[in-house]
Amino acid sequence: QVQLVESGGGLVQPGGSLTLSCAASESISGINIMGWYRQAPGNQRELVATITSAGTTNYADSVKGRFTISRDNAKNTVYLLMSSLKPEDTAVYYCNLQWWYRNYWGQGTQVTVSS
Q1: H or E segment at 91?
Q2: 59 CB contacts (<8 Å, ≥6 apart)?
């Protein structure tokens, strides 16, 4: 069972930046998709960004131009660089791995954007 461990959440002021990291507990080989989702209180979990094993990226319209997803396959790690943060970006951010027809989730990390 693959485990995903997130880090990097916290409190940041509007307009600030934050980087999230998510490391898989074992080597991820072959075709797979890693990504980030978020869930704000009272809302459904929504896609933020994904990146395939080949490096193809996909972003939600709400974060395009502000967030950048990347991965280091040697470290089995995916990153989310968040810039120009807004209060509406406040949510619990979850790491996700789609691999061999299974869906894996991290425990979530809180991101709060507030002055």
Answers
A1: strand 91-99
A2: 48, 49, 67, 69
* pLDDT, tens digit (0-9, with 9 covering 90-100), for 11-37: 999 999 999 999 999 999 888 999 999
Check if the beta carbon of residue 63 is closer than 8 Å to that of residue 73.
no
Quote the CA–CA distance of 89 and 98 in Å, as a whole number: 24
Q: Tokens 């898989």 — which residue? A: 24
pLDDT for residue 102: 94
End-to-end CA distance of the chain: 40
Helix/strand/coil for 79:
strand
Give tens-digit pLDDT for 47-61: 999 999 999 999 999
